């Protein structure tokens, strides 16, 4: 992967890590289910974003 793609994947991974931390904190304080599902969806969309970024970079020949 090119350095640009690696930096984008690193940025998305940092976002995923923050969503996971948020999920754990929300579990600890007993947040509503809506908040927990928001954290879960943030992680899932981040994983989709990583996959999309890597596939697009390979497809475009970067």
TrEMBL record:
<keyword id="KW-1133">Transmembrane helix</keyword>
<feature type="transmembrane region" description="Helical">
    <location>
        <begin position="35"/>
        <end position="54"/>
    </location>
</feature>
<keyword id="KW-0812">Transmembrane</keyword>
<keyword id="KW-0472">Membrane</keyword>
<dbReference type="Pfam" id="PF10745">
    <property type="entry name" value="DUF2530"/>
</dbReference>
<protein>
    <submittedName>
        <fullName>Unannotated protein</fullName>
    </submittedName>
</protein>
<dbReference type="InterPro" id="IPR019681">
    <property type="entry name" value="DUF2530"/>
</dbReference>
<feature type="transmembrane region" description="Helical">
    <location>
        <begin position="7"/>
        <end position="29"/>
    </location>
</feature>
């Amino acid at each position: 992967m090119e350095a640009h793609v690696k930096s984008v994947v690193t940025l998305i991974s940092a976002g995923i890590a923050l969503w996971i931390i948020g999920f754990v904190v929300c579990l600890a304080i007993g947040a509503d289910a809506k908040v927990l599902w928001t954290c879960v969806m943030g992680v899932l969309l981040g994983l989709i974003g990583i996959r999309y970024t890597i596939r697009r970079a390979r497809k475009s020949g970067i």
